[in-house]
Amino acid sequence: MMMLGVVIHTALVFMPDAPWIYQDPQRSDLAGLMVLLIHVFRMPIFFVMAGFFGAMLQARKGAMVLGGNRFNRIVVPLVVGWFVLFPMLSWSISFGWTYAMLPEGERSIMLAFQKMGVGVDFKEAGPMHLWFLYYLLYYYIACSFLSWLLGRFARPVVDLFNKCLKHFIIGRLRLLRLPLLVIASFLLMIPMKDPGVDTPESWIPVPRILLVYAFYFWIGWITYRHREVIEQLKNWSWLRLLGGLLMLGLCLIMSITWYMLLEEAGVSQETRDWILAVAQLFNVTCVWLLVLGLTGVTERLLSRENPLIRYMVDASYWIYLMHLPLTLFIPALFRYWDIDGTLKMLIMMVLVTVPLIVTYHLFVRGSVIGVVLNGRRYPTWFGSHHGDS
Questions:
Q1: pLDDT digits 0-9 by tens, 265-282
Q2: What angle (nearest 5°) sits at the alpha carbon of residue 128, between those of residues 85 and 197?
Q3: Rounded to two decimals, what is the model's pTM?
Q4: Residue 268: alpha-carbon gap to chain centroid
Q5: Which of 209, 213, 272, 301 has CA 20 to 30 A from 379's CA?
Q6: Closest CA to 39 of 11, 14, 19
Q7: Which DSSP string do the residues of 147-212 spell out, in sequence order?
Q8: pLDDT tens, residue by residue, 138-154
């Protein structure tokens, strides 16, 4: 889910009529489809996973270890990363705009570097793509505190709640599991302005967004207590996954329909609202089918650790943190490379990813940065054995 950030932010550069901070002259219709599709499921699935593994860490190590772990892995990357990345993003935008505005006879990368502005204005600067770390802090603090508070002063109520919940998760009422998840998520999605969940752009939390992702996080959190459901989800997992993919196609159709209606005169607001409501219903149904289906399928296919997948999982956090400036800077370097927009977009995705993997391997994996991001220091070269937790 993290590495899809490279895909979605690079695609925005090539998306026709996208309200993005930098646009390449070559466009791709595929870019818009990719952005719409990935936006449906990426962050909801991420927050479900974050809740599950947060609850796992608290249950195994305690609230104090969870707090220390999440301080290192969320607060430190958020604070340090923001002060590093915001100037990098500002310079990438400045270079891209400067290079784009150079007269045709004077276009050169070196001249663009010479003329670009290097000042950084921190006034009214938003959280960028790091907003999800900011929101995670709220969820970890809330769930940890409530778990302690309820466990200490309302244990009978908690036990009763878990007994009732067990019937819906793995018991006789499990057929109601998906409908209840869909209904609850749909009600939270109604206030959104566009299909899917709106994207925060401010350090001030947006209540409607905070609540939606809080629900996904909470479901992941409480599922850890009933994690035997994961074994059960192997049954019919391929069918759920297929249903999720079909719903993903319907989400795409409804989202495109809604955006087209926005541009058409004479369409009533009531009609637009109905289309948006249906799109949101398809959206949450798709998300939960994918969550349940992907969980079961991956349990079937990945019962043993795969070194390559494990490596990319470890690298993904670094890749996500550092990718945004590169998704603007690297396409800007190739602005005047006149080839098909779709092909160019795919090449740019590769060119963004490769240096991030190389820098992770050489400078992060075996360093103190790797300890902060991954929780331990891994060998830089395969076959070597140094490291500490």
A1: 777 888 888 999 999 999
A2: 150
A3: 0.90
A4: 33
A5: 301
A6: 11
A7: HHHHHHH-HHHHHHHHHHHHHHHTSTTGGGHHHHHHHHHHHHHTT-SSSSPPPP-SSSPPHHHHHH
A8: 999 999 888 888 878 88
